[in-house]
Amino acid sequence: MSGWNVSLRQGFKPMIEQEKTSKEVLIRPARSKDASAGAQLMFYAGPNHLLAFFGKPENKAIRAIRRMFRLPHHLTSYTYAFVAENEGRVVGLISGFDRKAWRASKRASQMYGPVWFVVVPPWQIPRMIAAFEDFDKAFLPVSDGEYYIEHVAVLPEKRGRGIGKQLMEFAESQARAKGLKKVTLNVDIENEPARRLYERLGFQTIEMVANPSYCKRFNFQGSIRMAKAI
Fold first, then answer.
1. Distance, CA of 22 to CA of 89 (rounded, Å)
2. Among the four 12, 93, 149, 184, which has the fewest Cβ within 10 Å?
3. CA distance from start to end of the chain
4. Domains in the chain: how many in total?
5. Residues ≥6 apart with Cβ < 8 Å to 66
6. Is 202 contained in some domain?
């Protein structure tokens, strides 16, 4: 994920409308009915964040995201996500935002606030609010000319087959079609395999975030913002 979107999605169409296929993998816009697979993949993209928001066990966090995934326009919605299909099965996901979409999605996420609180027990609501506050204070804003990748994940049994690379290349094509100048993402400091992959794809480290309360809340060392000019 990096870890965790627009006014209304009315008439929204991806900038690249054709579906992209490669090596028997089809990349298409996500749909609300992809909620089960999409929630699982979003969890893989940022388990520490989701567990901090919703608490353990893992399946509770996934249930919460599955419910929210079906709603349009917010940060964990299907609206800005694309999925990779292999043999008719969703095996990967990527979601991304330009600055306008990111800001609008934040407003939509706030609008859905009561729904977020329904998916957790009442005694966990203060912790969820504190987690959102720590996240907002530490998160680096999305700038003009930037396409920010919020989630990217592939099912464990499908990794090592180039699907993640195809998703990243697809995100770059989305950014180019929008006339943007760079693609950015966050990666956990301790996630060296992912960081090496992004470096091979041309990404460079531009900033590190290691706010103490943020790191403690989300149980990690911090995050690295990486960018690639396109």
1. 15
2. 12
3. 21
4. 1
5. 35, 36, 38, 39
6. no
Q: How many CB atoms lie within 10 A of CB 36?
A: 12
pLDDT value of residue 42 = 97
Q: Give the domain CATH number at 28.
A: 3.40.630.30
Cis peptide bond upstream of 72, omega within 30 = no
Predicted local distance difference test score (pLDDT) of residue 217: 79
Q: How many CB atoms lie within 10 A of CB 121?
A: 9
* Domain presence at residue 203: no
pLDDT at residue 67, rounded to an integer: 92
Amino acid sitting at position 195: R
Residue 2 lies in a domain: no
The residue assigned the tokens 């966090």 is 61
- CA dihedral sign, ordered 48, 208, 215, 196: positive
Mean pLDDT by runs of 10 across the 230 residues of the chain is 30 39 82 98 92 85 93 95 97 97 89 74 80 80 95 96 96 97 95 93 93 81 94
pLDDT score recorded for residue 135: 81
Work out the number of other CB atoms within 10 angstroms of the CB of residue 205: 13
Q: In the block, which residue shows the tokens 């099912």?
A: 155
Side chain identity, residue 76: T
Range of the domain at 33: 20-184
The residues pairing with 229 across neighbouring beta strands, listed in sequence order, are: 182
Amino acid at 27: I
